[in-house]
């Protein structure tokens, strides 16, 4: 699969749709997948911080039936490992100070991952305050990064990169009222070379555009598309047009 690093090196932006196995219904998934033939998506992410029915495998099988788009697991814990995906974000929650989510769960997951054949993507996961407590903050028992402190996010990302993490994920949390600010994305962009993933509360083409302009390499959208399927064509087009404008410039 085209890796995120390749996107970054080529200066291209990418777009991912997050599918939460708890929320997505079969018909809605099938319609969404059919639309991606016209409005492409670069990656499907499958997962969430709290998943209750563990239907990752069914969702992945359904995607495979209709699409060749790479599938990346976005796990909340080792129970979410599913070897039929292509890759997994191996998330270290570096915005928090809970050792279990910095290294503990990883020790439990390591032997399973070794056998899985999944591509492992070591990722610095930074949860950013969006005004309300998110599921990931509650489940992980960690405080998010302050929304208006880009410098703290930049130092966190720098440390993560120095520790060898290969991607940085700035996440305002699913359904966030306000997405990660362009100022924070730009601050992180100015200090790290690794690809930057941005998600949480991106529910318009304009918000996606602003995030890419500030330096995001991969835009992740879940809730927005669940609530309004017409957002898919809009976001797919905004990302393509952004990439075309970079090539023409
Ligand atoms: C959440 O970044 C993802 O972890 C996506 O968020 O559901 O708000 O798009 P949304």
TrEMBL record:
rRNA-binding keyword on record: no
Binding site for Mg(2+): 20, 49
Pfam families associated with the record: PcrB
Domain of life: Bacteria
Keyword annotations: Lipid biosynthesis, Lipid metabolism, Magnesium, Metal-binding, Phospholipid biosynthesis, Phospholipid metabolism, Transferase
Reported cofactor(s): Mg(2+)
Any GO CC annotation of this UniProt entry: cytoplasm
Family statement drawn from the similarity comment of this UniProt entry: Belongs to the GGGP/HepGP synthase family. Group II subfamily.
Matches recorded under HAMAP family: GGGP_HepGP_synthase (MF_00112)
Role this protein plays: Prenyltransferase that catalyzes the transfer of the geranylgeranyl moiety of geranylgeranyl diphosphate (GGPP) to the C3 hydroxyl of sn-glycerol-1-phosphate (G1P).
Identification of the protein by name: Geranylgeranylglyceryl phosphate synthase
């Amino acid at each position: 699969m085209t890796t995120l690093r390749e996107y970054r090196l080529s200066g291209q932006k990418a777009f991912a749709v997050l599918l939460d196995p708890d929320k997505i219904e079969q018909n809605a998934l099938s319609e969404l997948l059919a639309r991606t033939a016209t409005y492409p998506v670069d990656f499907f992410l499958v997962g969430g911080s709290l998943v209750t029915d563990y239907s990752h495998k069914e969702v992945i099988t359904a995607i495979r039936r209709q699409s060749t788009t790479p599938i990346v697991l976005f796990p909340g814990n080792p129970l979410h490992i599913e070897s039929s995906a292509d890759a997994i974000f191996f998330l270290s929650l570096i915005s928090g100070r809970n050792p279990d989510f910095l290294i503990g769960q990883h020790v439990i997951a390591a032997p399973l991952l070794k056998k899985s054949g999944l591509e492992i993507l070591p990722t610095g996961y930074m949860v950013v305050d969006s005004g309300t407590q998110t599921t990931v903050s509650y489940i992980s028992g960690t405080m998010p990064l302050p929304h208006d402190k880009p410098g703290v996010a930049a130092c966190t990302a720098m440390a993560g990169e120095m520790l060898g993490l290969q991607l940085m994920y700035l996440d305002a949390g699913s359904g966030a009222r306000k997405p990660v600010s362009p100022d924070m994305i730009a601050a992180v962009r100015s200090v790290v070379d690794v690809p930057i993933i941005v998600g949480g509360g991106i529910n318009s083409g304009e918000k996606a555009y602003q995030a890419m302009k500030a330096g995001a390499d991969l835009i992740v959208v879940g809730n927005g598309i669940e609530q309004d399927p017409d957002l898919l064509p809009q976001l797919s087009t905004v990302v393509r047009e952004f990439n075309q404008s970079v090539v023409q410039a």
